[in-house]
Design a protein that fits this description.
Radius of gyration: 18 Å
Low-confidence stretches: none
Oligomer: single chain
CATH architecture of the largest domain: 2-Layer Sandwich
Helix content: 40-55%
Protein name: SatD family protein
Organism: Kocuria carniphila
CATH topology of the largest domain: Alpha-Beta Plaits
InterPro entries: SatD
Structural class: alpha+beta
Number of helices: 8
Strand content: 15-25%
Largest sheet: 5 strands, mixed
Number of strands: 5
Length: 199
């Protein structure tokens, strides 16, 4: 399973701005599909448990885009029966998530811990996050709409720009290239969950 532990950046410098209850509620509504929903696990941390890699990828990329969180993903066994509250859950996935969020504080990118497959997932995921981080604001406007399924013509209408401008923005954002690596990340996430070690 997939345990996510996220730590608010800069919380020590500005503890009054944490608003963790608000973030918890936002995560619950914005990031559905959790087996055990988002809870505050410490003063500046939130955690949840998922069993679907696509949900996990969506969460990790969204939080990386915000650049306000250290994101740790742990993949592995979770003790059963599952409790009602994620803070009471135990297992290797949660140990790995703790290691991952600590690593994320050093790299600035989401970290993944578990088997060797998790290491492969992190490598490709970091590349995708680095590409997204370097996008201009105008490029981000186009990619957000493209992610929602808008065609280039629809994006042009929404942003009131020429369709050729949309094409240039998506090209400069490496939109197609970034999307092309998502299946690879998902495959590695699945393998990390299914197999204890990579060959």
């Amino acid at each position: 399973m997939y345990a996510l532990t996220v730590d608010r950046r800069g919380s020590r410098e500005d503890p009054e701005s944490l608003a963790m209850l608000e973030h918890r509620d936002r995560f619950r509504s914005s990031f559905p599909g959790a087996v055990l929903g988002w809870q505050i696990s410490a003063g500046d941390e939130l955690q949840a448990l998922y069993d679907e890699p696509q949900c996990v990828l969506d969460v990790v990329l969204a939080l990386a885009d915000e650049q306000e969180w250290h994101v740790g993903l742990g993949i592995g066994h979770v003790d059963t029966p599952l409790p009602e509250n994620v803070n009471e859950a135990t297992g290797q996935a949660f140990v790995s998530a703790r290691e991952a969020v600590t690593a994320s504080k050093d790299t600035g990118y989401p970290a993944v811990r578990g088997s060797d497959w998790a290491t492969h997932a992190e490598a490709v995921l970091s590349l995708a996050c680095a590409v997204r981080e370097r996008r201009t604001e105008t490029a981000k406007q186009a990619t957000v709409l493209a992610q929602q399924g808008f065609t280039q013509q629809q994006i042009a209408q929404e942003l009131d720009i020429a369709q050729s401008s949309v094409s240039r923005r998506l090209s400069s954002a490496l939109w197609s290239q970034e999307q092309a690596v998502h299946p690879t990340v998902l495959t590695f996430l699945e393998l990390a969950n299914e197999q204890p070690e990579a060959p």
